[in-house]
UniProtKB/TrEMBL annotation:
Keywords: Signal. It comes from Hymenobacter qilianensis. This is Amidase. SUPFAM superfamilies: Amidase signature (AS) enzymes. InterPro entries: Amidase (IPR000120), Amidase_dom (IPR023631), AS_sf (IPR036928). Residues 1-19 form the signal peptide. PANTHER family: AMIDASE FAMILY PROTEIN, TRANSAMIDASE. GO terms for molecular function: glutaminyl-tRNA synthase (glutamine-hydrolyzing) activity. Residues 142-496 form the Amidase domain.
Length: 560
């Protein structure tokens, strides 16, 4: 029994004299390496003393989080956010909701002409390029060659590409031209080049997950997003970098750079997708977000990023980091472009159960009268002092001048930070073999805050604490829904307040848009949030903001 007691102390629970009583973490003895040695013997693990020492400090932090979560009142009626799914894949396919293919009409656009300087095409929107291809002013093959040339020219400095898919791209472009010439036009993405974050599988090209242990990995399937964009007529030109296993901007080939200042990283983890779009190497790319991986690189690279509601886009064929938090979304030049791509990707997929329990269709809502929307703003977050406050205040003023009445909305005082160990715990399960085999030591980042140590730390998270945290998360979801009742959209600073963490836990959608610059030369952004599954209204307000400003039209000089 003596060897078991140290393990129980990790969870801040004390057994003695026939009673089980919670003890405050502050009253418990410090977590020590010998304590963890005993604990890992129980769990069948074999981490080194040095690794356990790094883990020890994180476990002290976890213990404080457990103590915080234990203050929550959890009546027996509160279920966890995880729901048991007994339906086998064979049956689920027949039970899928029917998707609505018609997204509706897009707003009219000015007549688009091929520019005299072909280099200007680099920063045309998807909608503009689509019109040029549809009207046969330029072929998909020419456009594809143009963007492939830019990828080859600028990638050596930006380090945003893991694999050029040139052979496939040329095949798809020629097929698109053949179809368009025959009058078989598939829609606004037909013949338009794009790239995907290299955690999406592709049959004939490596899928590296940005990490040394997987840099030569071949997966014999196309991810759902790759398939759906191919069906929409898209042309896959590249697979883009991600920070190792979807954290940060450092991958096995180096650090991906922001095109606005190549001494700065592009942030992550959708590092290459954001960098490539920002530099005009593709008109749009696909990324993912679990806890900021679209919002953060979109900011560093000055692009518009849509993080849709959880479950709206299939993750089949994508690397799993956190099954209950991973979300797929587009990075592009504008809200309108994000809507075009989203419309092609949204819908149920039997291989991703999360997509089978949410609304299947999406309608453009660009004809929305934004003056009739009830728009909130996180007043407490905007009132604090932070580096990009002036840019955000100017954005709020733009909205007011558009006739939007901003109503204070409060998301303060909600559990958020103490729930984030859910992410690393699910990630540790996804990469348990990597950790136990010792191959995790091949990864580039080995610091205390890097994945290897987080995965080891998560091995000591008690199952009860994980499930209790999911129950508190259920309460968070209900409380956020209560506070957001009556609001259509709201505005928030992109960083610093609780919004980013809260909404990634609750699954709410967000659009991050450029709204100025920081002192280091990198762009700043502001975030628009919305109700679950109401991406149409959200994108309509963002489009109105972008029509009234020109930040989305700015692009880096690329003088390197």
């Amino acid at each position: 029994m003596k060897k078991i007691l140290p393990l129980l102390a990790i969870g801040a629970v004390s057994f003695g004299a026939g009673a089980m009583l919670p003890r405050p973490a502050a009253d418990l003895p410090p977590i020590t390496v010998p304590m963890l040695q005993a604990a890992q013997g129980l769990l069948g693990l074999n981490f080194t003393d040095a690794q356990l020492d790094s883990t020890r400090r994180d476990l002290e932090d976890n213990r404080k989080d457990y103590e915080q979560l234990r203050q929550a009142k959890l009546p027996n009626s509160v279920a966890p956010t995880l729901v048991f799914d007994p339906v086998p894949l064979r049956l689920r396919q027949s039970m899928l909701p029917k998707a609505k293919d018609d997204a509706g009409k897009l707003p009219p656009t000015a007549k688009i002409k091929l520019p005299a300087n072909r280099d200007d095409l680099a920063f045309y929107t998807v909608r503009q390029l689509s019109e040029l291809v549809r009207t046969k002013q330029i072929s998909s093959e020419e456009l594809t060659q143009f963007f492939l040339a830019r990828l080859k020219k600028y990638d050596p400095k930006l380090l945003c590409v893991t694999t050029l898919t040139e052979e496939l791209a040329m095949q798809q472009a020629r097929q698109a031209d053949k179809e368009i010439k025959a009058g078989k036009y598939r829609g606004p993405l037909h013949g338009i080049p794009f790239g995907v974050k290299d955690l999406f599988s592709t049959k004939t090209y490596k899928t590296t997950w940005g990490s040394v242990p997987y840099k030569d990995q071949m997966l014999d399937e196309d991810a759902a997003v790759v398939t759906r964009l191919r069906e929409a007529g898209g042309v896959l030109v590249a697979k883009f970098t991600l920070g190792e296993l979807a954290m940060g901007d450092v991958w096995y080939g180096g650090k991906t750079r922001s095109p606005w200042n190549i001494t700065q990283g592009s942030s992550g983890s959708s590092a290459g997708s954001a960098s490539a779009v920002g530099a005009g190497l593709v008109p749009y790319a696909i990324g993912t977000e679990t806890l900021g991986s679209i919002v953060s690189p979109s900011t560093a690279c000055g692009v518009t990023g849509l993080r849709p509601s959880y479950g709206r886009i299939s993750r089949a064929g994508a690397m799993a980091l956190s099954w209950s938090m991973d979300k797929v979304g587009p990075l592009a030049r504008s809200a309108e472009d994000c809507a075009l791509v989203f419309a092609a990707l949204v819908g149920a997929d039997a291989r991703d159960p999360a997509t089978t329990i949410v609304p299947a269709g999406f309608k453009y809502a660009f004809d929305t009268d934004i003056k009739k929307l009830r728009v909130g703003y996180l007043k407490a977050d905007f009132d604090r002092d932070y580096p990009t406050k002036a840019n955000d205040q100017a954005s709020l003023e733009v909205l007011r001048k558009l006739g939007v009445q901003l109503v204070p909305l409060d998301l303060q005082g909600l559990p958020a930070g103490e729930l984030t160990f859910l992410l690393s715990t699910e990630g540790a399960a996804a990469f348990d073999e990597l950790t136990r085999s010792g191959r995790v030591t091949q990864m580039v980042n080995q610091g205390r805050n890097a994945w290897p140590n987080s995965f080891r730390t998560a091995r000591f998270v008690p199952a009860v604490e994980y499930i209790q945290a999911q129950r508190v998360r259920r309460q968070l979801i209900e409380e956020v829904d209560k506070r957001m009742q009556g609001f259509d959209v709201y505005v928030a600073p992109s960083f610093g307040g609780p919004n980013l963490v809260i909404t990634n836990l609750t699954g709410h959608p967000a659009v991050v848009v450029p709204n100025g610059f920081r002192t280091n030369g990198l762009p700043s952004t502001i975030t628009f949030g919305g109700q679950l599954f109401e991406e149409g209204k959200l994108l309509a307000l963002v489009k109105a903001y972008q029509d009234a400003t020109d930040f989305d039209e700015k692009h880096p000089p690329l003088n390197f």
